[in-house]
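Hi again,

Forgot to attach this to my earlier email, sorry! This is the prediction with uridine-5'-diphosphate-xylopyranose bound. I've pasted everything inline since the attachment limit keeps bouncing my files.
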Amino acid sequence: MEQRKGRRLILFPLPFQGHINPMLELANILHLKGFSITIIHTNYNSLNPSSHPHFTFHSISDGLSESEASAKDILRLISLLNVKCVEPFRECLASLLSDVSEEPVACLISDAIFHFAQSVADRLKVPTVVLRTGGASSFTVFAAFPQLREKGYIPIQDSRLEEPVSEFPHLRVKDLPVLKRWESEECYQLVEGMSNGFKTSKGLIFNTFEELEEQALGKIRQHFPIPIFPIGPFHFPTASSSLPLSTEDESCITWLNSQAPKSVIYVSFGSIAAINEAQFLEIAWGLANSKQPFLWVIRPESIHGGSQWLELLPSELLENFNVRGNIVKWSPQKEVLSHPAVGVFWAHNGWNSTLESICEGVPMICMPCFTDQMVNAIYVTNIWKIGLQLEKGADRGEIERMIRRLMQEKEGEEIKARSLKLMEKANLCFKRGGSSYQSLDGLVKHILSLESFVFGTQ
Ligand code: UDX
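Structure tokens for the complex follow:
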């Protein structure tokens, strides 16, 4: 822990697991750097202050009705939060800024998707640094949405799925980061709000490291005239700072302890993605037929219309599951990925999962579902070459073959070797003089320089 800076940072996470985790990890990093931390959070997926007693928490009412809050339409939910939180957030921020009993506020750090926070902060004359929790490569694609739209790549047309995207040579039209409904105006407004918000912010933080996404970071530096701070992977220097919204089932670690080194396939599709019953059965059969042990995270709501998923399984599959499988509702994922028994991560390529796997040198089977996951998967398979991609709707035979390629064949050995090399790079970036180490130092100096703006000392 560094000497206290006598300055407070106010952090405002988007209330979803994949966004809360990196924001909390960032909070811990900056706390270690000597800043005091205040978190503003919504009622929706509200945070538990007792898990981080060294931070101050303030809850705001998001005004979501019960049906709005339980909606499965994530885009709608985010759009509503961006409207309904404006006033409660403004009131909370204004009262924190005027509280002279606390250390002075150096800046607000808000999630990029909460784009309204920027204009509220501008009005209250508090500088903002924005956190983009996703990767830099996918961000360059979001930033190009207006051009992609103009050129007719989006909305995506079925007839063009395999066509390469001229602005992004690694991507085909089907790899563009869209949600199913992302052709709606609501979606474009959200992406536009995110990109425009940065323009008046004082800086942009990424949970990535220079060596991983050098090209994309270069592009972003050209495009956005603000300082860019790639200071990830956030979870490295802070060990266990995430704040699970579900209870972690630790029993899977005991089970992993009884498995052979590098033998287990860990299957998890993050906190939002869901699959249909047919996909669920193909995955189940593919895993069973592969004869490898597996640990599978099945959230109750992760199978469309199938909360009774156990009943979907024929008895011979259930027997196989009992012998070789372990199913949990939520795992301590970082602990799982660092376990010596885990050989492969079958992931949906949410950015956090992707980074966590890179940091542990675990090769991936990529099955992206939507948005940035599509781009992340292409980087994993075609650029870093540390995984293989399963096409959407792969059947049990394809799944079994893919597992064999990765766990038993020479191709898998090569992928494993590249994963380990990339892991070494990730390990180095936080060592003294490493890229993220330096970028973090730059961020701390930058934040301290912002206070002249707040207090008018210059
Ligand atoms: C969402 C989006 O879907 C994703 O595309 C975007 O990059 C971030 O926001 P999510 O789908 O939840 O995130 O995926 P991911 O980014 O991988 O974040 C999931 C987090 O939950 C990870 O930190 C992971 O370690 C944690 N997790 C997941 C657990 O701790 N236990 C689990 O069982 C599953």
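The mean pLDDT is 92. The longest helix spans residues 435-455.

That should be everything now.

G.
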